[in-house]
């Protein structure tokens, strides 16, 4: 393990462990006086804003198993497994993503500038709890592989996001997403609403998936929202309401009411809670309306 920084000259140290075990040991040893760092793009902005930088920065960039991307098959189902250190630029440009999870590519396309995406990692985006890839991963039914100091366990992202500090005692190793064969009856959408068109924080990012049956019935629905001022969530009750509806549906009012009931983001300096609800309703309802004409 390499340690850069000299305690006699400067109290700050950057550690470069090369295994998960060594990383976890450091994390336990320094606990509140440390943080893991991947691409550093988010942490750097936090430190610039005045949030105190801990004395021990644990870089995970030398851990090989966090860089792997592969297609695996388990029990007849294919999965794409994405190492936590995979950069957003790689998610955007590597054909394996375009072929298997194009909606994730669309989410990444909406994040920051090319220079940031070149350093920023998918793991850092998920780990910070507010990243724009999260709604796409929720809709894709992703699971996280988490190292807890003893073993690697698999946990659904929908479960992880229920706890604010879900990574307090774990290291995110990789993200695994079930891959489906392309089907013309399946439709995805992703929309990010920010204060301006590019390079800005999200007011609301909305992602959805619909599968329609032969008789124009909506058979499957996944809907997820995230934003820089609230924790991401799946809209489970609205999904239940939409499931089994016949296209074109006449229940738009009920759908709008259901979203209003289960999605209650806080107001912030720039936009009110009502505004966030209204754009979410408009986008979801218009995507359902589009299904009818397909
Ligand atoms: C100008 C600018 C614009 C941006 N625009 C956007 C945007 O539009 N959308 C968006 O979502 N984000 C945006 N960001 C934020 C950031 O770039 C991304 O969220 C990025 O994906 C974070 O990844 P990172 O590797 O740089 O994370 P880091 O900064 O290294 O880490 C972020 C957090 O995740 C933790 N962490 C990282 N990896 C792991 C791991 N494997 N296990 C456990 N914890 C881990 C760190 O401890 C830290 O708390 C922007 C940042 C900047 C500077």
TrEMBL record:
A Pfam family matched in the record: CO_deh_flav_C
UniProt keywords, alphabetically: FAD, Flavoprotein, Oxidoreductase
Cross-referenced PROSITE patterns: FAD_PCMH
Record keyword Flavoprotein present: yes
Source superkingdom: Bacteria
Span of domain FAD-binding PCMH-type: 7-182
Entry protein name: FAD-binding PCMH-type domain-containing protein
Lineage: Bacteria, Bacillati, Bacillota, Bacilli, Bacillales
